[in-house]
Amino acid sequence: MLDSVRVRLTLWYTAVLTLVLIALSTITYFIFWRSTLQRTDVNLAELSEAFLTTLDAETKDQSGPDSLRLAGQVAITEHRFRDHVFAIFDEAGNIVVSSQDVPPASAAAPLSAPLSSPSFQRFLDASTRSDRLFGKVKGGRDGYRAFARHFSALGKTYTLVILQSLHPQQEMLEEVTATFAWVIPIAIVLASVGGYFLARKSLAPVVAMSSQAGRIGAANLHERLAVQNDRDELGHLAQSFNSLLDRLNQSFERQRRFMADASHELRTPVAILRGEAEVALSQQTRSLEEYRESLGVLHQEAERLTHIVEDLFTLTRADAGQYPLQPRDFYLDELIVECVHSARTLALAKKICLNLEEASESPIHADESLLRRMVLNLLDNAIKYTPQVGRVTLTCRREGKEYAVSITDTGGGIPADLQPRIFERFFRADKARSRVENDGGGAGLGLSISRWIAEAHHGRLELTRSDSAGSTFTAYLPAEAAPSGTNS
Ligand code: ADP
Predict the structure, then answer these.
(1) How far apart are CA 229 and CA 227, in angstroms?
(2) How many angstroms separate the Cα of 74 from the Cα of each of 53, 165, 206, 347, 446?
(3) Across the chain, which distance is largest between two alpha carbons, in Å?
């Protein structure tokens, strides 16, 4: 049950709400209690003021040793309310007059004054040390708020003490507590139920999205999640998910095309191999020459097959970021000289003049065998797509922080509309011609691999020019930055 976000959200919400309500009611209770006490104190102070005024007036009217007691009785009769107890003490702490001496005006207000209780005695003792004192005295049901102040009468100092029962206040506070006790649980229950439905409603689109997403597989990768409101968080989530599906779909498409193209490319040499072998086997007697010829064809096709499989393997590892580069220090110009040497026989066969025009000393830190493969690919193409008696020129020069290796041929060039596609895998501008003239078995992967090699070295490979007079491919390689161990 706790695995459901809905339930977890509701529980969290309820827990936080409970804490907030408890904190709020505690604070409210405390504020209420304090203001009640303050009101009581103000009331006691005002009452004492009024009492002393009456007492003063009455003392003047009385004479004799008992005059203060008699005046006190009059003042008590005048000011006594239901909850109050008055008492006057002389300096020695003896009671001069108190409410207990004065019979109540109505029978409804008998108060058992706690004037002899120990807590009252303690309060009285404390009152001698200050002019005005508020305190609490035990007694009755809920105790008393006590107020003591000194006053002078007839040349002596007396202490007036007024006690007010805290019972009504306590009753009020109990009522407040009782109200909290049923209001808070009801509020929590209502809020949790509301919270649960709110969470359910808010999460409903997520649940819908998840079941929609669950139905999307390789077969229906083109389907997308419905975006209800593209401005809210859930809309953003659906959009992100949809763009993830877009990328997945594209990569799936690429992969599918790659597989289809790869199997198509592999089918031709395999068919030739099988056909040639079948023909050779079907004839009972064949001359040695004929067997040699068949084996030659088988060998050539096997080589072509090996070449394609190697290229495919390179690209697959490159895609997975698992082609380990083995960088080391060497001279790029020397590598180009070696490549020119290797391609010389190929060029000679087509009477193509192979020229290394410019190659300044170019130290580099790179994967030598990969760069060799790239230069040979480009050279191979240049020779392949240049007609007899043409010219292929190489240059290697430094341009700022890069080396620019250019290979220019005098071939027929690449049609402008096909130029953006020549780096695509399996793309051949002229399929028929490529296949016929292609004695190395090119499957349209050479330029893709070459571009990947340049990029794996943090460089780039570009077709810098191509028209009817020929084409120029240029590889730009960083002269200083060393490539990392594996490509990414
Ligand atoms: P391929 O194995 O067909 O040579 P590449 O990837 O090396 O594959 O080249 C892709 C296509 O680009 C080639 O089929 C060809 O049509 C075109 N191409 C590449 N280099 C040249 C060039 N130097 N001159 C004319 N066309 C070229």
Answers:
(1) 6
(2) 12, 22, 81, 139, 122
(3) 166
CB 482 within 8 A of CB 456: no
Ligand 1 closest atom vs CA 423 = 6
List ligand 1's pocket residues with C-beta within 6 A. 381-382, 385, 409, 411, 414, 422, 427-430, 434, 442-448, 471
User: Could you give the strand order of the β-sheet that contains 95-98, starting from the edge strand earlier in sequence?
Assistant: 95-98, 84-89, 156-165, 144-153, 132-137
Q: Which of 22-36, 304-318, 455-469 has the lowest mean pLDDT?
A: 304-318
The CA distance from 424 to 412, in Å, is 20
- Whether 357 and 393 have beta carbons less than 8 Å apart is answered as yes
Q: Rounded to whole angstroms, what are the CA distances from 172 to 30, 40, 185, 277?
A: 13, 13, 21, 109
**Segment 382-440, tens digit of pLDDT:** 999 999 889 999 999 999 999 999 999 999 999 999 999 999 988 888 765 444 444 44
Mean pLDDT rounded to a whole number for the chain = 87
CA of 135 to the centre of ligand 1 (A): 104
DSSP 479: S
Token pair for 475: 């590889």
Q: Where are the alpha helices (DSSP H) in 283-367?
A: 288-319, 332-349
Residue with the smallest CA separation from ligand 1 atom 11 is 428
Where b means 16+ CB within 10 Å and e means fewer, 15-54 reads: eebbeebeeebeeeeeeeeeebeeebeebbeebbeebbeb
* Reported confidence tier of residue 105, pLDDT bands at 50, 70, 90: low
> Which residue CA neighbors atom 16 of ligand 1 most closely?
429
Model pTM score: 0.60
Tokens matching residue 71: 């005046």
Q: Which residue from 406, 434, 472 has its CB within 8 A of the most atoms of ligand 1, so it is best to mutate?
A: 434
Phi, psi torsion values for 439, nearest 5 degrees: -80, -15
Residue 80 token pair? 């006594």
Is 129 in contact with 101 (CB distance < 8 Å)? no
Q: How far apart are CA 325 and CA 386, in angstroms?
A: 32
pLDDT for 325-341, tens place per residue?
Answer: 999 999 999 999 999 99
Token pair listed for 129? 């040390």
b (16+ CB within 10 A) / e for 186-214: eebeebbeebbeebeeebebeeebeeeee
